[in-house]
Amino acid sequence: MSAAKKEAKRITTHVLHAMKEQGEKISMLTAYDYSMAKILDAAGIDILLVGDSASNVMAGHETTLPITLEQMIYHAQSVVRAVERTFVVVDLPFGSYQGNSTKALNSAIAIMKESGAHAVKLEGGAEIEDSVRRILSAGVPVMGHLGLTPQSIYKFGTYNVRAKEEAEAQKLFEDALLLQEIGCFAIVLEKIPATLGRKVAEALHIPVIGIGAGNGTDGQVLVVHDMLGITKDFNPRFLRRYLNLFETIKVAAEQYSNDVKSGTFPSEDEQY
Ligand code: KIV
Question: Vertex 209, ends 193 and 239: CA angle to 5°?
Answer without folding.
Answer: 60
